[in-house]
Amino acid sequence: MRRGLLIILSSPSGAGKSTLARRLMAWDPNISFSVSATTRAPRPGETDGREYHFRTRAEFQKMVDAQQMLEHAEVFGNLYGTPKAPVESALMAGYDTLFDIDWQGGQQIRNSGLGRDVVSIFVLPPSIAALEERLRGRAQDSDDTIAERMAKSRDEISHWAEYDYVLVNHDVTQAENELRTILMAERMRRERQPGLADFVRGLNSEAGGRQ
Ligand code: ADP
Ligand code: 5GP
Questions:
Q1: 95-113: per-residue pLDDT in tens?
Q2: Looking at the chain, which terminus has fewer C-beta neighbours within 10 angstroms, N or C?
Q3: Does residue 17 lie within any of the structural domains?
């Protein structure tokens, strides 16, 4: 069985990574989504356990102290983290797992024991004006929150070169296709095709039998 991939998607807030994540999972329902824990308040339409596990700071800290987090970080004044157990079981079962996390989380997972199965992708907006338009168009954050996220966008973007792949989300369908292409190629890597050596042995013995 192939080991599952850890697909890390990062971007400045509003560049479109949640949209792309949703589309990629609709394309391949076998991709499991890593539901993070966060201390931020739910947005309208968000459900506990689906987008996030919404937790108090005390509950979050308890998970960290019990070493239940694969990584965690403070982002925009709130704590965000990846619960370890569901990721480990998805990977053991051979499922690829998608992470919508920031650069700090990306670094921590890349430097963990799971680093060799990481594929990291950074999503850039076509322009800063488009980024702001998207944050406003999402209509789920207050003006203050949007201003804070815009102010932090430069910092997040400064980490683009730490990622294996970078895509510019001009057109969402094109960006989705690029994402699929990355995933298909990564799944085809020689070391990720566990049956290949046996298959080639079979070809060799068939070729030997014909001589
Ligand atoms: P993120 O998860 O990176 O914060 P979202 O996926 O929530 O960003 O996208 C922010 C907003 O931008 C959403 O309203 C989404 O529908 C919109 N959006 C995403 N991709 C595009 C695109 N290529 N063109 C125009 N709008 C987009
Ligand atoms: P949002 O509040 O818009 O859902 O997310 C804000 C930022 O936190 C985004 O950059 C998102 O990728 C990041 N984030 C979400 N979950 C996690 C997590 O578990 N760990 C880390 N490090 N960042 C996260």
A1: 999 999 999 999 999 999 8
A2: C
A3: yes
